[in-house]
Amino acid sequence: MISILRSIWLTFLHIFHKRETVEYPEVKPYLAPRYRGRIVLTRDPDRNERCVACYLCAAVCPVDCISLQAATGEKGRRHPEFFRINFSRCIFCGFCEEACPTNAIQLIPDFEMGEYIRQNLVYEKEHLLISGEGKYHGYNFYKHAGVAMGVKGKGEGDTEYKPVDVKDLMP
Amino acid sequence: MNYLWIILGVIFIALSIAAGLIWVERRLLSVWQDRLGPNRVGPFGLAQVIADTLKLFFKEDWVPPFSDKVVFTIAPGILMVTILLTFAVIPFGPEFCVFDSNIGVLFFLGNSSLGVYSIVLGGWASNNKYSLIGAMRASAQMLTYEVFMGLSLMGVVMMADTFSFSEIVEAQRGGWFILPQFLGFVVFFIAGIAETHRLPFDIPEAEGELIAGYHSEYSGMKFGMFFVGEYLGITLISAIIATMFFGGWLGPSFLPPVFWFLLKTFIFIGVFILLRASLPRPRYDQLMKLGWKLLFPIALLNLLVTGAILIFL
Amino acid sequence: MNFFFYLAAAIALISTIMAISGRNAIHALLNLIISLLAVSVIFYLLDAPFIAALEVIIYAGAIMVLFIFVTMMLNIGTEKKIEKRWLNPRVWIVPSILAALLLVDFILIINGLQIPEPVDETLNTKQVGISLFSTYVLAVEIAGILLMAGVIGAYHLGSQKKKVTHRFLKK
Predict the structure, then answer these.
(1) Which of A72, B75, B145, B223 could form a disulfide with B121 if both were Cys (CB 3.0 to 4.6 A apart)?
(2) Per the structure, how many domains does chain A have?
């Protein structure tokens, strides 16, 4: 009996408490840098596409919302011919970002992507590809990869040895 | 002509309060839950009422093919009619009463007991297991609480020596009945919550276990009638508490009597909403036990003591 | 006033006939409720508002709710074979002849009765109370004892032994 009256009184006192509501369109909430929002494709510091169309993101996607087709450029560099994300399916789990070997696909702190037409939620490559580097500045996959793709020669990386001369008998 | 204005005024006040409560309840609940509540549509979100009403009107009014269609259709109407009829006997002011009946209190009790049908028949006609369980709970709960809702008012009736609401108000010029009839007030208040099946006692519609209980098959304006009927019920119980125990329209004369009546009514509506914000729902058997084993003896005891004091003092 | 009396009486008669002829149990009960309400209107027209209110509260409001409650729980179908067997003429012809004889008897008695003039004053609650506790005190007491017996019986039927589900809790 006393406890019931006490809980009524305590609830009444909540009139004087601070409101917890964030009035969204006027007051934007703080989104952490690692917030998982809209997905973008990023570029290298030298403005080439980072994506090498390895299909790992499409394979790991639990709702199968990513589809892409690989193509090979004139220097033998792979890039996606088309890259399509269906955001009406995407659950923003971030697995694609984790799977990506080249840091190309990234989730950024933006969630304001409501649409009246459902078809507009299917983003093509021109909608996804941004001209910046996203969250990882200065990263270039081909600086670390073993293949030469015009960024650095074979074996010139910081953590690489020179290529072994297979015709030399010295160890 | 004057009479017509009174009728229209009472209906207007009752219905506009009930509709406005859609907004008031959501705002007040949010105040007690550290939120802001609906504040987007119109100034302070006041147009939320219009938006909600329009939404209800334009929803598909679906009558389930497996239901008893006649009963299904008349059930929500019964609720509205019984509650609106009761507003006829409540004095909003000295001359502001549609029908100053000499059996006003009994009229209220009779109408509230007829209100049970709306829920019982609505639940039965839906032909749905959850609705039926809700309807059975509602009938048991409302029958139980009706018994001592009447008994708790009888103390006031004995002190005022009349069944007429306006004479009861006049009898409180010397002092409100809340002091001598405090037990009656407590019992009536709890019974009133159970009669309107408001939130601590919303066992017939308990959404956690019965989806929405008796009105789970209702949609559109038929649901809207149950919805508005619940708010009308709150307004009615608050108005009757104000009339029976808190002096009705009596108050300092610098403001019109209608104002004092509405002020008291609104305070109790606020208390109803506060209860919703703060208390959990009891189990069904706990509710029945509370009714028959605690409130019923209290109501009888109150009646006995009041009668004894009136006779021997 | 007379018009309203005849209207209420007609409603009461029609709804009662519909109540006893209806096939759907709930619809029959609804008609019975309407009949009770019409009777209550008649009481009110006869300047007995207290009885009218009691008719609504007790009969229409409480007892009929219990009827509906029970009917809901029994889940009665619309028609049964056994009812058809009951309704063949061989079964009902003798009771109906007897009932017709009683009806003739009743009409004769009513014709011979002196109908008292309706009293002009409103029957108030105080008079009802005084007559209940002076003239009819014996009937009130007997009814009270009867109800008490009902309450005790219901309590006895409703009380159940506490079910012990665990052997350690058994005494």
Answers:
(1) B75
(2) 1
Q: C40: how many CB neighbours lie within 10 A of its CB?
A: 24
Q: Which of B30, B32, B36 sits opposite A11 (nearest CB)?
A: B32
Domain boundaries, chain B: 2-312
> A122: phi > 0 → left, psi -120 to 50 → alpha, else beta; which?
beta
Residue A146 lies in a domain: no
Give the CATH number, domain containing residue A106: 3.30.70.3270
Tell me which chain B residue has its CA closest to the CA of residue C63.
B143
Amino acid in position A159: T
Average pLDDT, chain A: 87
* pLDDT, tens digit, 9 for 90 and up, residues C112-143: 777 666 666 666 777 778 888 888 889 999 99
Three-state secondary structure call for residue A95? helix
CB contact under 8 A, B102 and C49: yes
Q: Write the ipTM.
A: 0.78
Q: Is residue A8 part of a domain?
A: no
| CA B60 – CA B52 distance, rounded (Å) | 14
Which member of B106, B121, B142 has the closest CB to residue C53? B106
C21-41 per-position pLDDT tens digit: 877 778 888 888 889 989 988
Q: Does any domain span residue A46?
A: yes
Which chain B residues contact residue C49 at CB under 8 A? 101-103, 106
Q: How confident is the model at residue C76 (pLDDT cuts 50, 70, 90)?
A: low
- How far is residue A14's CA from residue A31's CA, in Å, rounded to a whole number? 28
Is residue A45 a part of any domain in this protein?
Answer: yes
Architecture of domain C1-98: Up-down Bundle (1.20)
C50/B103 Cβ within 8 A: yes
Determine which of B282-286, B300-304, C77-81 has the lowest per-residue pLDDT on average. C77-81
Residues in chain C: 171
DSSP B37-106: -S-SSSGGGTTHHHHHHHHHHHS--PPPTTS-HHHHHHHHHHHHHHHHHHHTTS-SSSS--S---TTHHH
Q: Which domain holds residue A69?
A: 26-137
Q: ∠C64-C69-C72 over CA atoms, to 5°?
A: 125
B34 Cα to chain A: minimum distance (Å) = 5
> Would you say residue A138 has pLDDT above 60?
yes
**Beta carbon pairs, B and C, within 8 Å:** 73
Give the tens place of pLDDT for each residue, B15-29: 888 888 888 888 888
